[in-house]
Structure formats: C-alpha cells, structure tokens
Amino acid sequence: MSDVKYSEEHEWIRVEGDVAVIGITDHAQEQLGDVVFIDLPAVGTAVEKGGDAAVVESVKAASDVYAPLTGEIVEVNSALEDDPAKVNADAEGDGWFVKIKIADTSELEGLMDADAYKAFVEAQS
Amino acid sequence: MNTQTSQENTPDGVKRTPLYDLHVDRGGKLVPFAGYSMPIQFPAGIMAEHGHTRSQAGLFDVSHMGQAWLRAPSGVAALMERLVPGEIQRLGVGRMRYTQLLNADGGIIDDLMVTKFEDGNGTEELFIVVNGACKDGDFAHIERELSGDAEFELWPERALIALQGPKAAEALASLIPGVEDMTFMSARKTAYEGHDVIVSRCGYTGEDGYEISIDGSAVTNLAQHLLDLPGVQPIGLGARDSLRLEAGLCLYGNDIDETTSPVEANLVWSIGKRRREEGGFPGAGRVLKELSDGPARVLVGLAPEGRAPARHGAAIQSTEGEDIGIVTSGGFGPTYEGPVAMGYVRAAHAGVGGEVNLIVRGKELPAKIAPLPFVPHNYYRAPKN
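Above: the input entities. Below: the structure tokens describing the complete assembly.
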C-alpha cells in the first residue's frame, strides 16, 4: 500500500518509488466548488517546493496550486483538460494533477499523515 | 411581533438580512457582501444552481439592495430626470425603467430601477431600487440634489427577493394570483397574506421572473412558501453572477463605475429618445457628444478560446501586442458551456468577431469579440390579441 501525505496547502502526495503523484484534497475541492479548468505545467518543468505548480479555476475564482516538493514534472493528468470536473468527483484518485520526480526525499518529512491533516482541517474551520 | 429589519447589525459589523436564518437552515455558505452576510452558494453548488434557474425557478435574497420612495406635490418624474438619463416623465403608471444616476462628468454613480406608481390621490410617486453596496451614497446624493423639491423616504424595513426562471410565473401566481399576466418591466402593488407587497416583472438573470418587495417581518414566510413549491430552489450570489454575465448585464463596480459613461457601457438603449434630444441630465455634454461622435472605448462581450476563464482585471491586447483594454467581468458560463467575459476595448477593436488576446497569468489567451448576451434572454412576452 502506498503512503499518502498531505500538505498545509491542501494537497495530497502519494509516493510511488522516486515519483510523487500530487493532487488537491477532497476538502480543497469542496471549498473551491465546481472546477471548470486546470492550468497544468509542461512535462519537464522544474518546480520548487512552495513554488507555483498549477492553477485551478472554479466557477468562483482562480486558485494557485503550489508544489509540495522540489523536483521535475514527469507526467500531467491530461484527462483533466477535457473533464476538469474529475477533480470534484474524485479529487484523491482520478483527479490527480501531476507526477513529480522527487529531488530531495527529506522534504517528505515535513508533510502530514492522514490523521494529522484531518486534525489540521478541523482546526482551520 | 418580529421587528427585525434588513438593517440589523451584528457584533462584527456585518449586517444580516431577514432571511439570514433561512439561508443557514438551507445550508448556505455565507460570505460578507455589500456589508451583509449573504449566501454565495447552497449545497447544490453554483453550476447546479445556475442550471436550475435557467430550467426551473431560483429564489434569490436581494434584501441588501436599497429601496426608497421619491414623492413631490407634482412633477416628481421631472425631478428624477435631473439625476438620470432615462425617460421617466413618459413612463406609464405601473411601469419601470432601468437607468443610471450620473455624475457631472457623465460617469455612473450607480444603476437603478425606477418604477412609477400613483398614490391614493392620483399623484405620481417613484419607487427606487439601488445596489446594496452603493445605497448610502446614492440616497445621500438624491436627498442633496432634490432637497426642497421632493420628499425622499428610505424603506430600510423592506426585504427584497427575486424569483427567476421559466417556472417563476407559475410558482408566484400560485401564491399571488394574476402576476402571470404582468408584462415585462411592469410592477403592481398587491398583498400576500395581509402584507402589502410590490411585485415587479424584472430581474438580473436574463430569464423571466419577478422581484418582490415585502416587509422584513413577512419575507421568511413568503420565501418558505415559495421554496415549498415544486421547482423552486434557493440560489446564491455565485450563480447570480454567472447568470447575469451570460445575460450580458452590467455589475456595478466591475463593468460600470464613476469613470464609465452609459454610452461606453453599451447602455444607450436605456437613454430616452427625448432625453437624447433635450439633454438636461448630469454629464449630458459628454454623453451627447459620445452619442454623436462615438465613444473612445466600449464595453464588449469576449469569448475566450478553450476552457480557461479570464477574470476581472486581465489586460486585453490586439493581436499585434498593443494594450487595447481591460476585462471587467469574467468567469465560466455554465449554460454557454465555456468561459465568458466582458470588458472595455478601444472603439476601433469593438467589432464582433474581432480577434484579441487576453493576458492571463502572463500568457496570451486568444479570444473573440462576442455578441451580447451570451445566452439569449428569455423575458416574458405577452400574447398578442
């Protein structure tokens, strides 16, 4: 079973070998409302932890998605181009955004596990 | 006896409308808007609420808007015409007009609805509805400009709800019989369960529908009865904005403000023919000059290619990369099934079909100048005899 971590920016990170699959949490999609467009980075882009990785446009507003890890974009979920509503329907599955080749595994240590993220969300509301 | 008014203050300074408890009960997500705590959406979500209003009937709380009366011993319409470019003198009793309060430079202080009624003695009186965020300034302006000539009475205890969509007439007529025969942009004084109401056939969605003014103490009862009817659902501010944008209707503060004239804002249709000939309203010099020579910039529809929306503030460039304007409203049109926007461009670039670029996150997003509205209006037309 793969290990899923969470960031304070409401992203989930599933580590598969030296690659991290990244998306926004179910809580985040609920807050955003109906997603209508996702601006994904190009494959090959170098991203830095905390830097811009993607933009989610909901009916309400545009929201930045920050890279939770430093690395290189090795794959993007191009199915979201035609069907951005996948993010609302299955944020933590089919609605994944990008895969990043992890540059520094020590960055994973600062992320939350599922229980800590749940507590984090409850403390925010 | 409930004496709550639409002006109720809360400790945090954000006011609540009389429908606040109903919004909470229905699961509304409340946000501060125009000084009030208002629902941006209900559990159905903006897309579903938008679609529901276009196909059935949506109920909106617009009690944050300002309601007032203007009265004078005689000639109240001529007095109002000192402030707006709309034809008010020849407006029929029970008819309403969309117009704008203009400043001395022809800029728009606010847009508003003016309805003509008669009091018990047959003297004309005007019922005025203005935007919530502008109401204090509007009312001070009207009082200052017309003091001594007209009596201006605020109506803060009144709530206002809108019922919009193709099922609105059937729904409202089941509670207030006769409203189904009202013509578009007409209004009547009537009653519901002993409370006097003003029903106006108008709205801000492009659909058929009504706005209903009723005392704040009675609005929850009326709203609850409407929501109990089949096909009526509560709608939040999010869908209100996407509906009006698809309908090509201006949002004050975004698409129109004190710098934009009604000619630039494509509101020439709302300026009375006689008023264009006679002038006599604030900023008439600029407005009449723009009517004869054409404005330097004009509000247009913008249809971005693809799915990415361009939002308020995005620059508009020609295909040669020259700055030619700015997006004033933009988002996703659920019925249009694509991104929609409005913005000002230099007049030379305003032709429908023209290609422009919208600058979104530093990148060029190709778009075409589009005819407005994006979604055809579906206003009620009385059957011809």
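Note for the figure: The radius of gyration of chain A is 13 Å.
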